[in-house]
Amino acid sequence: MAAPALLLLALLLPTGAWPGLPRRPCVSCCRPAWPPGPYARASDGDPWWGLPRVRPTIDIEILKGEKGEAGVRGRSGRSGKEGPPGSPGLQGRKGQKGQLGPPGAPCQRAYAAFSVGRREGLHSSHGFQAVPFDTELVNLDGAFDLAAGRFLCAVPGVYFLSLNVHTWNSKETYLHVMWNRRPAAVLYAQPSERSLMQAQSLLLPLAAGDTVWVRMFRRDQDNAVYGELGDLYITFSGHLVKPAAEP
After folding, report:
1. Where is mean pLDDT largest: 23-27, 66-70, 120-124?
2. pLDDT at position 242, please?
3. Residues 140, 184: contact at Cβ < 8 Å?
4. What is the percent of the chain where pLDDT is above 70?
5. Distance CA 121, CA 225 (A)
6. Largest CA distance in the chain
7. Architecture of 113-242 per CATH?
8. 204 has a pLDDT exceeding 70
9. Residues 6 or more apart from 123 whose CB is under 8 A from it?
10. pTM for the full predicted model
């Protein structure tokens, strides 16, 4: 029993507790950590102090494998928003003169004109009446109807119109230049002992299908224009000044 008890006592008691035995100095049993931390204190007795710090490196090229095959191309993305316009570029050089083109079609000018007259005098018979004509001086394309006393416009544009009459002694002269159904101008002369020539002229923008004519108007007293079979006292004329289609 004595041997085991002594062995147990030797394990439990510290080294310096045995009487008569010298104390052994404490020796570090493990190596200091490496590399030392940023806050570690260096001492002269540290065997690792002063040695260069070595960091291991790995060559990535050794770990790389071979290049793989190209993948399938993805779908096209959505179109982005339109950006702001850029600044204008420099003006280019003047190009070479082109070849002469073929000759164009000849210019076709539109014409329209009439000039008619009345040799026989006319008295008003009722309130309104159209003045017929019996003499044709100019009538392009037959646009003026002598019996009806009307010009029918076939070429639209601006027309110059003129009316000339000879008054009758002691009778009133009251005429209208009519544009379709509305009076465009009046020719008037008061009753007088002497007859005289009266004239009226104007410009009208006529459309295709418009008509111009002369209307006689009777009021309380007789209305008349003078005429003789041998001479031409009453004339009504018109011609196209500017076609509507002309620039």
Report:
1. 120-124
2. 94
3. no
4. 72
5. 6
6. 187
7. Sandwich (2.60)
8. yes
9. 222, 223, 224
10. 0.57
Spatial distance between the Cα atoms of 235 and 165, rounded to a whole number of angstroms: 7
Extract the tokens encoding 61.
């090229």
- In this prediction, residue 245 has a pLDDT band, given cuts at 50, 70 and 90, of confident
Helices (H) and strands (E) in the chain, counts: 2, 13
On the question of a cis peptide bond just before residue 35, with omega within 30 degrees of 0, the verdict is: yes
CB 163 within 8 A of CB 214: yes
Q: Are 157 and 205 in contact (CB under 8 A)?
A: yes
Token pair 């310096």 in the structure block, residue: 16
Closest CA to 225 of 154, 172, 152: 172
Ranges of each domain in the chain: 113-242
Full DSSP string of 76-104: PPPPPPPPPPPPP----PPPPP-PPPPPP
